[in-house]
Write a structure and sequence with these properties.
It is built from five helices and five strands; from the N terminus they run βαβαβαβαβα. By secondary structure, the chain is of the alpha/beta class. The chain has one domain: 3-Layer(aba) Sandwich (Alpha/beta knot). β3, α3 and β4 form a beta-alpha-beta unit. It is globular.
């Protein structure tokens, strides 16, 4: 099983990589998150938001394999708590298929990507900048792993 974080955007500030690696380095080798940064659609004059999202959907679709579990992050998705994420992580490990966690561009994900996703999650009712989402996903996966393994990082 491989966990990939598919993101659209530009080069991230150094602090993002430092924070992301803080949690990713704590995960066991078989759960390390691989980041796949793809260029966001070029904001050319005259393109509408739906056109931009469609272009980005095409970029994302090229990264998806037919047998993977695709999870889209979207503000309208199902709210998820830490125990829920731990249950998903345990299930993924038993299933063995690769997992893609998909983060859209500045305008969100095209509906075609949401339709290709087996699950749609919301990290919060708050809106986060995309670079912070990378850190949140890494920390929450580490927390879920800690919970599953009775590690004291996660306290109830």
């Amino acid at each position: 099983m491989k966990i990939s974080l598919l993101t659209l955007g530009h080069k991230m500030p150094d602090w993002v990589n430092t924070a992301f690696n803080t949690y990713n380095d704590r995960l066991p080798h078989h759960l390390k998150i691989q980041i796949n940064e793809m260029p966001a659609a070029s904001r050319q004059k005259g393109l509408t938001v739906p056109q931009l999202k469609a272009q980005e959907a095409e970029i994302i679709r090229k990264q998806l394999k037919s047998n993977s579990i695709n999870i889209a992050l979207d503000e309208q998705g199902k709210p998820l708590d830490t125990k829920g994420m731990a249950k998903h992580l345990a299930s993924w490990q038993m299933d063995g298929r690769d997992v893609n966690i998909i983060v859209g561009g500045a305008d969100g994900l095209d509906s075609s990507i949401l339709q290709l996703s087996q699950q749609i999650w919301s990290l919060s009712k708050l809106t986060f900048p995309h670079h912070l989402v990378k850190v949140i996903v890494a920390e929450q996966l580490y927390r879920a792993h800690s919970l599953l393994n009775n590690h004291p990082y996660h306290r109830e």
